[in-house]
Amino acid sequence: MTRSALPDLGTPFGERVRRRLHEEQLIWITTVGKDGTPQSNPVGFLLQDNDSILIYNDARANRLDHVIDRPRVCLHFETDGDPGNVVVFTGTAHRAQDIPLPHENPAWLAKHGDNAARAFGSVEKFSERFPVPLRVEITRTRGV
Fold first, then answer.
1. pLDDT band at 80 (very low <50, low <70, confident <90, very high)
2. Which of 13, 17, 82, 127 has the fewest CB atoms within 10 Å distance of its CB?
3. What are the residue ranges spanned by the domains of the chain?
C-alpha cells in the first residue's frame, strides 16, 4: 500500500488540510518558466483522490508548456493573514488525458458549476475556455 502525501486525517493539521481541499474554491499553482522564473497563478481546483489535484486550463496557459520540461510544481492556499493557516503542497504536474471536459465532470460541477455558470454564462462556455486538464500528483504537504 502506498502512503498518502497528505497529512494524517487523525491530526488537527490533516483535518484542516482535507477540509480546505474540499471547501476552498481557489488554490495558487507555481510553475517555473523557461528562464527559471517562478510563475504563480490562482486557479480553481478539485481534489481527485487522496493524492492528486485537477486543474482545468486555457489551452494557451503558459503553465501547460512549463510542466512539459519542468513538471515539479508547488500549490498553496491563501492564509487570510493567519500565519497558522499555511498549507503548501509540492507535486508533479502533467496533462491528464483521461479527464472529461468540466461540464461533463460531475465532481467538478458540484464544486464549481454555479460559479462557472455565473462567471462565464454557462458551464459549457467555461469548458470552451478551459478545456485542458492538468493533474498534479501531490508528493509532499507541509504547513502549520
1. confident
2. 82
3. 12-100+132-143
